[in-house]
Fold each of these.
Amino acid sequence: NWKMDSFIEKSVNDINRQVGNGRVVCGLSGGVDSAVTAALIHKAIGNRLSCIFVDNGLLRNFEAEEVVKTFKENFSADLHVVRAQDRFLGKLKGVSDPEKKRKIIGHEFIKVFKNEAQKISDVQFLAQGTLYPDVIESIPAHGGPTVTIKSHHNVGGLPEELGFELVEPLRFLFKDEVRKIGEELGLPKELVGRHPFPGPGLAIRIIGEISGQRLEVLRKADKIVIEEICKAGLYNKIAQCFAVLLPLSTVGVMGDERSYENVIAVRAVETTDFMTADWYRIPNETLGSISHRIINEVKGVNRVVYDISTKPPSTIEWE
Ligand code: XMP
C-alpha cells in the first residue's frame, strides 16, 4: 500500500529529525495506538527507545503477560514492566464515583510512570499514541471550556510532569489508518485488530466499588464474551465488545437452592468514530451461549442482560 508506505517513510524521517541523537520513552498499554507508536519510533531510532508497561491490576485476563510476550516477539527494544497492581487497588479502595476512579488511576499512573522513566538515563522525549480524534476533542469549541462527559485522564499531565518533549507520530491519523500502518509494520494481526480498551480498564466496568474478587468475576465473564464472539466469527465486525459487572444482587435458582447473586451486562457496539454508536445485533444463538456459559462457569453471577442502548444518549462504557 503506497499511501501507508509513504506515511511510514515520512514519519520515520520526522522522528529522526525531531529526536536527533536523543532517547525516547514510550508507554505501552497493550493496545494498537501505543504499539504502532513504539514500532514507528523503533524503526526510526532503534535501541534508543525504551518502553514502559504499567500493570495496574485493571487489565483483562492474562493481558499483562500477553503484552510482554508480544513485545518480546516483535521488538528488540528495552522494556520495563512495572507491577503496580497493589498500589492501584489500594488507592481505589472504597471509591465508587467513576470520575474519582479515573482521577486516581490517572494520578497513580503518572507517579508510577515518572518513577520508572527517571531510572532510564538521558531521556528527553516522550512518545504518545495520540490520534487525530483525541487532538480535536481536546480543543475547546469556540474558545470556551470543554465539557467533560468523561475525563480521559490516562495521558493528561504526563509530559508536563516529566519535562519531556512530546513525540506524537499518529496525531493526524484515524484508528483505521493506524491499524493499516500496524499491519504494514508487521505487527501481529490480533494486536492490530484489537478492540479499544480504556485507560482506567476494568475499573470503569465494575459499577461502584472495585475489589479483587469483583475483578476476578469480571475477568472470567469478559473472557467468555470474547471467546464466544470470536467463535461466532464476529470479533472483527464489532467495534467494541465487553462485559460489565453490576454488583447488585438478584434472585435465582441453582438446583434446588435459591441464589442471590450479581448481574453481568454484555455490551457490543458498532461505530467508526466512537462518538456515536449503535448496539450491535449479536445473533440470539451467540447471546444464548454467552449467557449459558457465564451463569454456569462464573461463580457469583446468576443473571446476564444485554445492553441495547445507542450512543447518544447512552455512552459505550457504563461509567
Ligand atoms: P464512551 O463510554 O465515552 O467511550 O462512549 C468512548 C470510547 O472511549 C473509551 N473510553 C476511555 N478511554 N480512558 C480511555 O482511555 C477513559 O477514561 C475512557 N472512557 C471511555 C471507551 O472504551 C470507548 O472506546
Amino acid sequence: MLALQGDFREHLLVLRERGADAVPVRRAAELDDVAGLVIPGGESTVMDKLSRAFGLAEPIKQRIADGMPVYGTCAGLIMLADTVRDAITGQQNFGGLDVVVRRNAFGNQNDSFETDLDIPELGERPVHAVFIRAPVIEQVGPAARSLAELDDGRVVAVEQGVLLGTAFHPEVTADYRFHERFLDSIGR
Ligand code: GLN
C-alpha cells in the first residue's frame, strides 16, 4: 500500500480484512518486499512530489514495467495514467496505463457524488461508486480497456493486464470487488 499521502489507512483495513498481508510502503526497500501495490486517493500533485522526494518514483516505475500488479483509485489512477490533463506545472506521474485522464473532471460545484455502476464482469449487483473531486478517463488507448462507464458514457474504470484503475473510491463503501480483483491478480 503506497502510504505517502491520502486515504491509505482505509485501503489497508480493507486489504487486511480480505486476508491480505498488506503493509505500508514509504521507501524503496519496502517496495522490494511487496507483490503488488495499491495507490490511494488523495492529491496526485502531493503524491507525485513525495514519491520523488522519498526516492520511490523511479523504483515504482521500474516495478510497473516489470509487471507488478497495481490498483490505483482516484489520485492513484492519475498516478498510473500515461497522460494527465489539467496537471499542475511540472507534475509527474508513474504511468503504465494507456489512458488519458483529466484531473478534477467533474468541476467544483459538483465535485463529489455517488452513483451505481453496472459492471457485468464483477457480477449482477451494481457497484456503488463514490466520486470525490474525481478524475475521468477521457481516452482509453489500445492497450487498455474500459471496465465501467457512467450513464453519459464517460469511462471511470479501466484495466490493462495487471493494472487496474478506478476514478472512484471502493474503500469508502462496503463493496470490495475491485480490491478482490487486485488481490486475485497478485495470486495471494
Ligand atoms: N483531485 C485529486 C487529484 O488531482 C484526486 C482526488 C481524490 O483522490 N479523491 O489528485
